[in-house]
Each structure stands twice: as structure tokens, then as C-alpha cells.
User: Fold this.
Amino acid sequence: MKKKGPLYALFLSLILLLPGCSSLTVLNPKGPSARTLSDTIILSIVVMLGVLAVVYILYIFVLVKYRAKKSNEGYIPEHEEGNKVLEAIWIIIPIIIVAFLSVVTVKTTTEVENVAADYKDQTPLVIYASSSNWKWHFSYPEEGIETVNYVNMPVHRAVEFRMYSFGTITSLWIPQLAGQKYAMSDMLTTLHLSADTEGSYIGKNANFSGKGFAHMEFEALVMSNKDYDEWVNDVKETAPELTEDEFKGLLATDFLGRKTYSSTHLEFSPPPGDHSEHMSGDGSEMDMDNGSEEHQDNKEIHPSPEPSSGTEFDSEPDPEVEQPLPSSPVDAETHDGH
Amino acid sequence: MDLDKFKVHGEPLIYGAMVSIALATIGILVGLTYFKKWGYLWREWLTTVDHKKIGVMYILAALLMLFRGGVDAMMMRLQTAAPEMKFLDAQHYNEVFTTHGLIMILFMAMPFIIGLMNVIIPLQIGARDVAFPRLNAVSFWLFFMGAMLLNISFVIGGSPDAGWSAYFPLASLEFSPTVGNNYYSLALQISGIGTLITGVNFIVTILKMRAPGMKLMKMPMFTWSVLITNVIIVFAFPVLTVALALMMFDRLFGSQFFTMANGGMDMLWANLFWVWGHPEVYIVILPAFGIYSEIIATFSKKNLYGYTSMVFSMLIISLLSFLVWAHHFYTMGQGAMVNSFFSITTMAIAVPTGVKIFNWLFTLRKGRITFTTPMLYTLAFIPIFTIGGVTGVMLAMASADYQYHNTMFLVAHFHYVLIPGAVFAVIAGFHYWFPKVFGFRLNERLGKHSFWWIVISFNVTFFPLFFLGLMGMTRRTYTYSEESGFGPLNMLSFVGAVGLAIGFLLLVYNIYWSTRYMPRDTTSDPWDGRTLEWATHSPMPIYNFAIVPTVQTRDALWSAKQDNIPLYDDKKITKIHMPSNTGKPFILGVIFFILGFSLVFSLWIPAILSGIGVIVMLAFMSFDRDHGYYISAEEVIATEKKLKRGETV
Assistant:
């Protein structure tokens, strides 16, 4: 029985640590998507602790009761074939647990793959996040600005990241706002998130991508709508334009600090076709070719397939951006709620 | 020719490794010559087709690789023990974790299990050898040469550095220009062919060579698990073979299957890799389930509870193992529907696995449990593996996985599955069957000491990683900042790793000590076993059984001992047909090694010559007309008499 000691200590510490442990970033969400995931994780931990408890109690019981002792010396256990009823019980109950968790999974997966319920009526702010070597490029097609290694976004706003890579597979992850998703060279992926608290959050590449992987972090700064607008205007007025030559220079560099530009690289180096087009039969082959070649040498301007959702990536800043942001229903309530 | 690409620069550690490898090689060569053991080595080992000796060689190689992979692990844990450590640089760290993964899975866990299969399966089914003894030797030498090829990469040319999953485009020539990933494609290919041949060999052996009366549903559970495992091998390994061949074409001949340019598809590699990679997990875990089933039954003195459901749960697991591969990349953007499908198939595996856990617990119930070293490992497996299992269900939930993927949580999970699920099992099996092969037990007191070190340290090493994952620490990170707060738990984990190392050193010391001092076991059945392997002498004669036993019940030996059900219908000893030794498998392995090495460095002329050599050798072996030899009845009777008196033969 000795070895149960450390195990129990570890479990107790798990239970004690779980609630309100702010250093567990994954369980300290600041947006609806991350909150859904955090709730799912905690729910699954609770269910699984139940399963563990059953196994452990049974385990300790049989070990204590049926260990070889002086008193049962010479005892030869009887042949025991099995028991249909008992075996049915430990088939059916796990099936019920798995079915329950399956429902939760399907529901929450669908939830986080779409715009969060509270933000459904907003047009999402589109940000293209592309990785090259060990840096992140964030392009705001609507605003016509681009940043390197940091991303600013307004609070209470649906944000749609569209990710791709100029090289190895990377994974965009801002743990307190949403789960991660891959950025790849031949396919555009989408990540929906929104933040309901202003603040600075750690973002990183989660997928191993070579030598500089450990240093591939960025700051995700969530600011008030007013500050965000000010920042955008400021960038447009003061930051230099991103020329093709400049961008090629950026791609070739291994590491960079923060950079800010008043135009995006999307204008001369469009992203690969997105997922839905890959799946849509004939045309896909061509799209893939286009996408890949572009990243080989970002010289030519290919007629890029328009993202299917029809959102607004355009070389001109979208007029809509100049208008006030659509208001969100959560806007009013959230501040006092947290 | 550019000699520079053979060199690995920089690290004093690497120079140290080079020197020690050179010294060890010289030491072995000089030792063999001095003690005049070349002939012995060639006759008894390099040319052997005896399943027991091949099994022993597999296990020896696996122990060596355990040491190598363990040193890798220690280096990784040391490098991450504190923030901003300067022990390894990024490139070196990447090579170390890549080879750690490859070696532990493919060159430690698999060969250890295949070694135990080799030693035990023919004994357990009452056969004289495997169905194709010479192919078995081919399997071993291909595995061994593949393992050696990967291992020399460390000092010649550089190791693979793109992770054991070698995702493209990171593993392509563009992003990984060193020869490291050439080694990956060729070393895995060569040993993979060996494994595939093993798969065919053991399926035929188990289906065709069982003792009379041993119906499928009377086979011992280990035999069942091995049969199912080998079916998985035969279905899964061809996928790896194809994927590795495409990878080799991409890297050596400029094809574009997985590259970024010209329509190459990096996602295709991930799919192919995991279509093999997930069943691979079950290839190492199902035999472990078999080993545990044998040990639990033996040391609770009871037959296995729910035999039929045990068999069916393994069949279901083997089927499901091919339907879950996409759970390794939920985050690739395939959408909620696809992810939901794979979530459900993955969680479904928990059901048959749970059945096994409860059946084991109910086998223990009403038994008389003795705590021997193999039994301790088995009993530690149940609670620890259950943690691995339930965290597996948590990871299977696609939505939640968006937060666990690529983090230390995942690393903790799969170590909680693979270490109790495979490593504890092979250690338990090693202690359990050791007296069968060598005629004496390992020391129990030392065994228990190393057990406690290993089990407690294991939890200290890997439990903190669950929390590190939830704190946002990604796997494969060679360094982190002080502010991240990852420091203390990583340090704890390093302390655990040191404990694990001590545990394994004690295990090795136990082998040394027991070899010198343990008394010989004269009973041939030291654990009061239940299955046929304990019905012959320890160590067993080359022909295994003088008379082939007849089986009437599942625990044939137990029934013979308890209920006096006779094991042998026919008491008359007759002449025995045995396969003769051959050096051809070894030579084929060497040629394959030269072929692999030449291809790694694009040395075309030796590559073409050794390629022709392989084909010639295969043709030559196909027309080999050696039908083996007979051991005469008189000789068998004489041997049996000697063995009964406790003499060695």
C-alpha cells in the first residue's frame, strides 16, 4: 500500500489547485471561446475523477482483502469463468459516460468553431495571421495595416483569424482567448475568438517548427474600442508602407522585434485558398498550386481565390471600418459581471 | 565528395560520445579476439535461427536502446530543469527529443516486446520454433541494422531534428537540410521491413503451430494479444513503408509529395504518419495487456476473469485503432464534423479498455495475491495506467484538445500511457520469464528496490507535466523565461527523472548481481505457473519440448498440476526436426546497412552496388535448399536425462 501515498498527495493537490488557480492559464479564460473550453475541461476532469475513484476503491479493496496472508495459506482460489451481468455493467456504464462526453464534445466543438453566441450579430474583424520562420505577421485587410509579432484587437468584438504559413506548420495559440489552430502553407484555417476583458495576453506558436520555436511568442493586446480606433489611425498616419521588397526582407529574417506598417502584404502576396475550396472538387488542384508557388517566391501576384465567406479582403481599406463598430449585446453587462 | 557533411561540430558532449563509442568498439573487438570468442559469436548468435536466442538478442538490443533513450531523456529534463538553461542549444535539443521518441518507441518498446514474443510464444503454444525461423533471423538483423543506422547519426552527419513525427514541410530538404531526416527515412524503413516480416511470421506461427487441442479460445491471453498485435502490424506497417519511401524520394531525388512547392501536401504526411502511428501505440500496448494478464493470473492463483470479453475487447481495440488517427491533429482545421467523428471513435476505445481493467480487478478478487516483483509492476500499472486512460478521454474531446494539443499535458498523458502500458509490462515480463530463459530468478529484494524507485519517480517526473500543460507550456520547447513560471515544476520533474535513472541502474545491477549469486532454479516452474512455457525445463533445450504436449484446458499446466489432466498423450520420444543455422540473414542485414548508409549520404555507387547486393542475396536465399536436420531420439532422451538431473546442456 505504500505507493498509494504519493499518488494521493498528488491527487489532493490537483483538487486543491483546480479552482481559481490563476497560473493555470488554460483554466483562466478571458473570452467566450476559451471559457467554453475551460468549462469542458473542468467538467471532464470531474467525470474522470469519478471514474478514477471507482477503480481505485475497487483496487484497494481487492488488494487488502485478498492478499496472501498466513491465515489463508494453502487456500487455492476457485475457478471463476466470468459473470455476464457484471461484465455487462462495466460495458454499459462506460458507454453511457462516453456518450455523455460525446454530446458535450460535439456541442462545444461546434460552438468554438463558430462565432460565439453573444457575438453572432457582429461582422467579425478579420485578421490574417501568417507565420514565417519564427515570426508572426498580422494583417488587417479592413484597416489596411500590418504588424509583426504583436496583435491588437478591440474588446467585445468578434475576431476571425485566418491563418497560413510561409513555411513549416505552426499553430496559433492565445490560451486565455481560444484554443489553437494550425497555420499551413497550402490551406487557410480559421479561428474565431473574442475577448471580454481588456488586457495583455500571451500568444505563441504551439507547434514545433525548428530552431527558433521556443522564442516564437507574441503579445495579444485587447484594448477598448476607442483605444483601438486611435491606434489604427495612428498607425495609418505614422507607420511606413509595407513594400514588396521590405516584406521579402522580413520573410528572410529569422527573428524580428515588433514592426508596424500602414499597408498589408496581402495586396502583393495573397494567401492560399481556404479549406472549403480545397474540398470542392475540380478546382482544388489548381488552387493548391497557386498557393504553394506563391510561398516559394513571393514575387508574382496570383489571382487568389476569394475566401468563400465573401468577407472583405480587398486591397482598399473597407469603408465599413470607418463607421463605428457594431455594438455588442454583451457590451453593457460584461464589465460588472467580472 | 564532400567530407564535411559527415562531421558533427561543436558540442563537447558529441565529441565525448564519439570517443566513448570508438573505445567501446575497440574494447569489444579486442575482447573477442583475446578470449577467442569470434567463432562462438558467429556460431551461437550471429547465425542462429533459434527463437529463444533471437528473442534474447532483441531484448539485449532493447536494453541498450533503453539506456540511449534514457540518456536523451535525462539531457532533456536537465536542459529544461530551470529557466534559460545553457546545457544544450536549440539544434541539439531538437535532435535529442527526436531521437528519444524514435528510439523509445521503435527501438526500445517494440523490440523488447518482440523479444518477449520470440522467447515465449512458441513455448506457450507448445511449438518447437516459429513458423519461419530463418525469416525470423532476417527480421532481427534488419531491426538491428536499422537501429544502428539511426544511432550512428548522432556522431556521423547529425540526427533527425524534426520530431519523431517528422511533420512536413519541417522535415523537407528546404527546412532540414542536414542528413538527419535521411537517416530517419532509411533507418525506420529498414527496421520497419523487419517488423513487417515478424508480423507475418507470428500470425502463421500462432495460427498453424499450436499444440494439439489448443483451440483459439484455449490460447493463453499473451498469445492472443500477440496474435492481434501482429495483425495490426501487418495492416499498419505498409502505410509507414509507403510514407517513408515517399519521404525518401522527396529528400533524395527531388520529388514533391510533401513539400510546399508544386502541389506537395504537408497534411498528407501527417495523415499517413498517424494512420500508422496510432495503431503503433496499440502494437506496444496490447502485448503488454497480455503480459499483465498472465502475471495477474499466476500471482493471484486464479484463472483470468472474463476470458472471452478480454479477447473481444482486444479485437475491438485493434479495429478502433485504425479509426482514430485524426485525433492527433484536431487543430488542422478539418472542421467540427470530422473532429466530432474522431472524438467519438477515440473515446469508444475507453470502453473495451475499461472492460480489461475491471476484468483484471475481478481476477484479483477472491484470489490469493502474492507481491513478487513482476506482480508489483503489474499492480502499479492498474492505477497509473488508469490516469493515462482518463486523460486520454479528456484529450479525445476535440474542443478541449484545442487547449491540450502540443502542450506538456499531452506529453504527460502519453507517458502515463506508455510507461505503465509498455515499459512496466516489459520489465514485469522480463522478471517473470527471466528464470525460464536463464535458469535462475532475479533477486527479489533488489527487484523491489528498483521497483519503488521507478514507480515513485515516474509519478514525480510526469505528474507535474499535466499542470505545466495547463499553464501553457508547449512541448519541444528547449528553453523558457523566468516569468513564465514554469521553473519549479520542471525542476521537480528533473528530480523525478534522476530517481528514474537510479531505479533503472538498480535494475541493471540486479541483473549483474543475480547472474553471479542467485541459486539455480531446479523446479523449472518457479512461480507455480499456469501455461505451457513452464512445462518444459529452464533453461529449455533447443527443441523446447521433448514430447509435444496436448492441451485440454486454457491453463493447461495448471490443470495438469491441480486436476491431473495429462499433458502428454503420447509418451514416446521420437526424432525431432530442427532448422539449421545460417549466416545469410546477418549478411543481408549488413548489406542493408551499407545500402541505408550510402543512401543517407547520397553515395550513389555504393548505393547501387549494395542495392544489387540486396536483390542477389534475396534471390539466393529464396533458392536455398536447406531442409534442416534431425535430432535423433537417443540424443533427445540423453539430453532430457541430463536436464532432469539439473545439468546444463
About this structure: The mean pLDDT of chain B is 93. Chain B touches chain A through 102 residues (CB under 8 Å).
